[in-house]
Write a sequence for this structure.
C-alpha cells in the first residue's frame, strides 16, 4: 500500500499517461479524409451494394466540393467537368442499389442514407447556383435535375404507391 501522497500522485500520473496513450493508439487520425483516388481504387472490389453506394456517394461529394472550389476560383470549365462527374456518381450510387434488386422495406437504412445525401446535395447545389454567374448556371441546373430525378426514384422505392 502506498502511504506517501507524492508517490500516489506520481503513480496516478504515470497510469493515466499509459491509459491516454493506449486509448489514442486505437483512435484513427482525426481530420484525414480518403482521397478520390483511394475511394476509386476501392470501388471495383466492393461487392456489397450498400457499401458500394456509400463509396459512390463519397466520390460524388468530393466531385461536388471540387466544383464549388473551381467556381470560387473562377474556373467554370473544371467546375462543369466536376459537376458531370458528380452527376454520374449519383446515378451510379442509385444503380448500385437498384441493380442488386434490393427492396427498400428490407434495407431501409441504405435507402434513407441515399435520400438524405441527395437532399443535402440538392441544398448545396441550390446554394452553389446562387453564387455562380448566370451564364455558368446550366451545369449546376443539370446536376440539380439529376439529383431531383434520382431522389424521386429513391422516395418512390421507400414509399411505393399503394396498389388498389
Amino acid at each position: 500500500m502506498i502511504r506517501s501522497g507524492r508517490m500516489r500522485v506520481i503513480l496516478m500520473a504515470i497510469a493515466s499517461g499509459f491509459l491516454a496513450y493506449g486509448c489514442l493508439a486505437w483512435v484513427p487520425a482525426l481530420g484525414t479524409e480518403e482521397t478520390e483516388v483511394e475511394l476509386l481504387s476501392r470501388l471495383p472490389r466492393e461487392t456489397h451494394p450498400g457499401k458500394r453506394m456509400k463509396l459512390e456517394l463519397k466520390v460524388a461529394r468530393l466531385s461536388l466540393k471540387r466544383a464549388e472550389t473551381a467556381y470560387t476560383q473562377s474556373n467554370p470549365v473544371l467546375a462543369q467537368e466536376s459537376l458531370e462527374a458528380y452527376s454520374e456518381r449519383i446515378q451510379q450510387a442509385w444503380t448500385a442499389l437498384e441493380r442488386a434488386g434490393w427492396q427498400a422495406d428490407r434495407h431501409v437504412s441504405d435507402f434513407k442514407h441515399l435520400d438524405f445525401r441527395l437532399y443535402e446535395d440538392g441544398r448545396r447545389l441550390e446554394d452553389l447556383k446562387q453564387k455562380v454567374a448566370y451564364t455558368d448556371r446550366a451545369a449546376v441546373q443539370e446536376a440539380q435535375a439529376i439529383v431531383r430525378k434520382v431522389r424521386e426514384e429513391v422516395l418512390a422505392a421507400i414509399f411505393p404507391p399503394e396498389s388498389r
User: Anything to note?
Assistant: The mean pLDDT is 85. Residues 49-72 form the longest helix (24 residues).
